[in-house]
Amino acid sequence: MTPNVISVTGQRLPTVVPDLSAPRRIHVVGVGGPGMSAVAITLAGMGHQVSGSDIRERQVLERLRAAGVTVHIGHDRRHVHDCEVVTASTAIPADLNELDEARRRGITVTSRAGILAAICARTGALAVAGTHGKTTTSSMLMLMLAAGGRRPGFIIGGDVADVGTGAEWTGSEWFVVEADESDGTHSHLPLVGTVLTNIDRDHLDHFGSFDSLVASFSEYLDRVEGPRVVCIDDPVAEPLARRTDCVSYGLGVDARYQVVDVAATAGRQDFAIEHPGGRTEVRLPLRGIHNAVNATGAFALAVETGVDPDAAASALSSFGGVARRFDIRAVDGGATFVDDYAHLPAEIAAVLAAARHSGDGWRRVIAVFQPNRFNRMAEIWQDYARCFTDADLVVLTDIYSSGTTPIPGVTGKLVVNAVTEADPMRRVVWMRQREDLVRFLASEVGDGDVCISMGCGDIASLPDEVVEARLRSGRGSAA
How far apart are CA 411 and CA 312, in angstroms? Predict the structure, then answer.
């Protein structure tokens, strides 16, 4: 694959980096998606004339309209007339009528990576890269920079509770962005600093092999002009940190920014960070040791770029979290319902460990997981074998396609088999049909239980569906 082209499922979009130093007329295809909506809001904030199209009305489009973006429902060739730049994510078919019309008219067509690189080029961009933890870590980094008086702009993969949005252009010289590896975006961003959280097996359909994925992160670090902050707890990222002149962080005793003295209480962790400037005490209102480590990575980059350690710690103490990251959606009849974006084995294990050791005193931890993408499950279904060890009950659904093509023999039953073969004594339930899943959980989840639904498909609405079913059946607290 050529270095200036992104390819997903056979589709190719050029990664052209347009000049955004003057106002441009820009059209965003698939503007309702989480990545492209954030791009559109940022471009409008920069002063560009922005339009976008999507196939259906959805809630985020009202936010776009409020930001000054002209939104079209449906795709039409006329939408790109008079545009100077047209951009789309790699989820959009390359032969879509709007993209075809733009090429026919000689209008610049670029991938999300290209337009994001163009935005970063207008700022001093700091990125968070890695397979897990990007959204939470970048959110904390943004708030620490703000506490240090930097007023950073940002594009983050989820709404930050403290500011109510996942994207904002402030006009500051500082900008925080997630360096997404799923389509190679991380390889194109001009950056003055980065955090690398970890490297795990994912997106092999894009990279071809795990070695190629690791190589892409090695090259990524080489291109960053400023501080490179790397977690040495991760066995794959650690050699990259040793090979290059990186700032290390983590639980390990060799870390330049070391997490020590962690104490978990209900909904919070108290710990300290030992670093070259001394020792800083932190009170973090998040569960899970992984979040203490993530906070330390963000803290390290903020301090390395000049933020006062006490100001950074103060920002952490009031961090409100990110949407779909251990998001407590309801407490009903003594049962707690949590929604989380976790969809890879390491993420699931971290979330369940956070629940088990949080100090909340939950009687049972019930894990509900919706596998995502046929191609992902075909590659890594066996990796899920031991990620549910902190769950008392595991409930698995069929695969949510996310637009991928079904593969014969690849179903959610593969994950069921992996878990039951690795741990025959663990209680595992497979629920293929949504109505059966809701009915089962409504009757199964009881007083003192925490039910954590995980995945990046339509599982996000499950807590609401279960609570409603409990109410109808007379089990809910409002009955």
Answer: 45
User: Is the per-residue pLDDT at 157 higher than 80?
Assistant: no
Q: Distance between CA 207 and CA 445 in Å, rounded? A: 41
H helix or E strand, kind and range, residue 96: none
Q: Average the pLDDT over 239-266 and give the result.
A: 92
Total residue length of the chain:
479
Can you read off the two tokens belonging to residue 98? 């709007």
Question: HEC string of the chain?
Answer: CCCCEEEECCEEEECCCCCCCCCCEEEEECCCCHHHHHHHHHHHHCCCEEEEEECCCCHHHHHHHHCCCEEEECCCHHHHCCCCEEEECCCCCCCCHHHHHHHHCCCEEEEHHHHHHHHHCCCEEEEEECCCCHHHHHHHHHHHHHHCCCCCEEEEEEEECCCCEEEECCCCCEEEEEECCCCCHHHCCCCCEEEECCCCCCCHHHHCCHHHHHHHHHHHHHHCCCCEEEECCCCCHHHHHHHCCCEEEECCCCCCEEEEEEEEECCEEEEEEEECCEEEEEEECCCCHHHHHHHHHHHHHHHHCCCCHHHHHHHHHCCCCECCCCEEEEEECCEEEEEECCCCHHHHHHHHHHHHCCCCCCCEEEEEECCECHHHHHHHHHHHCCCCCCCCEEEEECCECCCCCCCCCCCCHHHHHHHHHHCCCCEEEEECCHHHHHHHHHHHCCCCEEEEEECCCHHHHHHHHHHHHHHHHCCCCCC
Tokens of 412: 């959610």
pLDDT band at 4; cut points 50, 70, 90 = very low
Given a cut of 70, whether residue 11 has pLDDT beyond it is no
Q: What is the mean pLDDT of residues 178-206?
A: 88
CA-to-CA distance for 182 and 205, rounded, in angstroms? 9
pTM: 0.84
Domains of the chain: 13-115 (3.40.50.720), 123-317 (3.40.1190.10), 327-473 (3.90.190.20)
- DSSP class of 75: -
The Cα–Cα gap between 73 and 91 comes to 17
